[in-house]
Amino acid sequence: MVTFKQILRAFILAGLTLGLITCAQGTPVIQSDNDSEATPERLETVAADDRLTIWWTQGFLPEENEVIVQLVSDWEQASGFKADLVLLPDRDILSDTQRAIEEERSPDVVFSFPADTNLFPRLAWRDQLADVSHLVKPIQDTITPTALESVYYQNNVTQTRSYYALPFGQNTVHLHYWQPLLTEAGLYDDEIPSTWNEFWQFWQTAHTQLRAQGNDTVYGIGFCLSALGTDTFWQFEQFLDAYNLELVDEQGNLRIDDPGVRQGLIDTIKQFVGFYRDGYIPPAAVEWTDSGNNISFLEQQSLMTVNSTLSVPFSQRQPDTPYNRQSTDYYFNQIRTIPWPNKPDGSPHRSILSIKQLAILKDTDQLEAAESFATYFIQPKNIDKYLQLATKGRIFPVIRSLWQDPFWNAVDDPHLSLALQQHQQETRPSYQVYAPAYSEVLQENVWAKAILQVLDDGISPEEATDQAIARVKQIFGEWS
Known about the structure:
By secondary structure, the chain is α/β, with parallel strands linked by helices.
């Protein structure tokens, strides 16, 4: 069996490419290393004035990088343009791109997985992205409405909204559990409630019954509660949406002064704190990075978990060989992906989407080549190739016709089939689409810090909420 730890180890080793410069089909490629900072000056050494410079997220495994390298090479052959491809860890792209813009040595095209939450909204706000409406509008009828809305950013310089990025993928928050552990607790799949309060009580009951049988190593709810990654705010945002709490309206107005919103924030913080203090969440959850809940779940320390992609079950999605027999059993039989429960008011769950998108920098002197590459990449066959081979299906396409592809519409796949249903139901963008200042709220992990203040510092949920509200208002004030 290929275990999660083996995969994680491969991820780490894949990142230790010491400034490796490679050449694929004539396309210069530079990969960042983990031991020296990928400065704009260093990255500029591979760029030429007559070539398109593309900064792209660096994959964990070699085959993830090979897909984009091949697509760039294919585009070069089809278009006659030439490109330099720079592969950077997601953690570096935000700071490197902003510094490169300031130093007037920016790339022409940028993609990073978290760019929709922490980079593109603020660059569009500052009038630093090229308007790509003429590239988006011809294909807008093929794209999901939430994806379109998620690249329709506010420009504070022109005081208008427009399309400043091209969407191609989307992901959202999923629920997973171990079926054998549920059975061990004396409970069954068909007993999982679809109503909100009863749903979360169900996992607490399962936890208690496992403890009663002497199993003290498994926790009922595998929530991340740290301020070190993105999982905590995605969970928290989904809970706020379930309680119909609108923190930012579609016009970008902050609504946290509404007494009902403040009380909803207090109640949600109390709920997360209660899960932890009552012992249903692993103690280490307050220190997890984004891989923490994955590892806890896959080592069967958590009965259920919440994750913003399908990476949890997909870690066990291996070729069906005798060597991988156990991981195949985990994927198809033991790990279950389930729908979110209905909201407390009985209405259906609404998924908050993160939209994967590429953007062209406004100050590019390679606009024709940049638009040519962007147009090439967002062709359905190329999006499909990238998402299937590079993300392994963790990210869904935004082009609805691709959902009919047997890969995505896999009725015999217990995880993809459920995820497709979730994407087909009601969705909405994250708040930074309406108010780019909210990207800083997410980047600072304001809500996670409020939870930790209650747990670590012993202040009341009311005081933690008021401090968080004050910080959010301060951030929005600095952006106005």
